[in-house]
Structure formats: C-alpha cells, structure tokens
Design goal:
With about 260 residues, this protein is of the alpha/beta class. It has two domains: about 200 residues, 2-enoyl-CoA Hydratase, Chain A, domain 1; about 45 residues, Lyase 2-enoyl-coa Hydratase, Chain  A, domain 2 (Orthogonal Bundle), CATH 1.10.12. Helix 1 links the parallel strand 2 and strand 3. The longest helix is centred in the N-terminal third of the chain and has 19 residues. Bound molecules: acetoacetyl-coenzyme A. Acetoacetyl-coenzyme A binds next to helix 2, strand 6 and helix 4.
Amino acid sequence: MGFENILLEVDGGTAIVTINRPKALNALNEDTLKELDQVFTDLGADDSVHAVILTGAGEKAFVAGADISFMKELTAVEGRSFALLGQAVFNRIENLPQPVIAAINGFALGGGCELAMACDIRLVSDSAKFGQPEVNLGVPPGFAGTQRLPRLVGKGRAKELLYTGDMIDGQEAYRIGLANKVYPAGELLDAAKALAKKISGKGQIAVRLTKSAINQGLEMDAARGMAYEAEVFGLAFSTNDQTEGMTAFLEKRKPEFKGK
Ligand code: CAA
C-alpha cells in the first residue's frame, strides 16, 4: 500500500517511518493517523523487522501536534472519535512487538509529544522542542498526554508542563527523563540507526519478551508484574535463542540468534 503522508524505508532489520507533511510541520490529521496505524500494523507482522525508527520529515519538526485546521470545526462527538483514533494508533505503536525508537528532530508538541511518548526510547536533537500546548487552544490533550507524561516524568513536572503549555528544549527533556539522549542535529538519525542495529543483534524473542514484561507489568501491581516476568522468563527456555545464547557464552563465542 502506498502512503501519502508517510515514508517507509527498510534497511536490514531496521524500518524507518518518516511522517512526511513538512509544510504543516508534520501535524497529524485523520489520514496521517490512519496511515500510521496501517504501517505499524504491517511492521508488527513482519518478523524480518527487528526495530523501528520513527521521525519527522524536514529540519524543523518531529510532529507539531494534531492538525489544528482539521480539528477546528469538529463537533463534540467527532472530537471524541478523533481522540480515540489517536489513542488507538499510539497504543498500537506502544505495544508493537518490536522496539520503536523516536528520533525527535525538532518540534514535538501536543500530539507530537504524545506520539514520542508512545515510543520505547526517545533520542532527541539539540534543536528539539517539547511541549503540551493544548491549553493555548482551549482544549486538554487528547492523545494520552495526561496519562503518559506523568508516568514518564512524574505528576508534578507533568502538571506544570500541561497547565502552562510551556516548551522545553532537548536538554531539559533529558534532565526530566523525557528524552534518553541528546545529539547534535546532524548526528541524530545515525545515532538512532546505530541503536536500532545494536538491538537487532540481540536475541529478538528476548527483546520482545522484555518489552512485553515491561509494558504489561507496569499495568499490574508489583507481585503480578513479577509473576508475569517469571512466565516470560520460563517461556524463553523453549527457544533456540536461549540454547544458543547460553551455549555461545560458555563456548566463549558470539551468539548467532535466529529469533526462533
Ligand atoms: N496543525 C496544523 N498546522 C500546523 C500545526 C498544527 N499543529 N503546527 C504548525 N502548522 C502549520 C502552520 O499553520 C504553518 O502553516 P502555513 O505555512 O500554511 O501558515 C506551518 O505549519 C508552519 O508553521 P508556523 O508558520 O507556525 O512555524 P513557526 O516556526 O512560526 O512556529 C510552531 C512553529 C511553534 C510549532 C507553531 O507552528 C505552533 O505553535 N504550532 C502549533 C503547535 C500546537 O499547538 N500543537 C498542539 C496541537 S493540539 C493537539 O495536539 C491536541 C492533542 O493532544 C490531540
């Protein structure tokens, strides 16, 4: 399927998804959200893809938010549907079997910050700007910003950002735990590719089980989370990757994982 608002490139085990509406600073309208849903559905079913990088086209923006021109005339019912659509797409990204690395190359505002937070890891350029400016538009966030931001940076910091609409730069995002690492703009994509490659070289079933244990476990109390972890740990012992990984260690050689 061809996409109008998204570019997809697959290089080895890494897929790069680029949101491609640079004239609108990659703002998310309904069509773009639906295309994102499709591309991540396809990637999730493709076992040859081991990691996904999500970025924005152009030098200015990752995603400057949900599309304000699209939203302006929505009715209450349509607004609710739009929020549910965005949330469903971001949940699909968060729960993709493979890790998703956001390469945040500029503005990540509103729905853009919310999209970045649905990714597993956020690498950012020193020119990146984060914020949840919805209150400037007379609305609260709708794509799960009120839920993911406090879980990532804590309730107090999240409330300050959400109530003021203030923008913060990449360094500040790093300081409060919103960003994993900050790079000079020209080095960001290569850093994301290197990280994706590093993860691709590990046991892929182990990576997927780890992601599942974190995502599922954080929704449970600690005892249930640990019980779930023990289940996925046990499951790994049914795989060739476990035999190969442990045998290779004892034979003092590099493992050759097959993802089986
Ligand atoms: N929706 C639609 N169009 C957008 C947009 C958005 N979120 N953000 C930027 N654009 C468009 C601008 O309208 C402009 O289009 P034209 O050239 O046709 O006029 C183009 O992108 C370039 O933007 P600017 O001229 O404004 O660029 P700038 O450098 O002066 O400012 C900016 C950049 C600070 C990011 C500014 O564009 C801005 O504040 N954008 C809106 C950010 C925002 O409020 N995002 C939250 C949206 S609400 C949301 O996301 C709700 C939710 O949780 C679901």
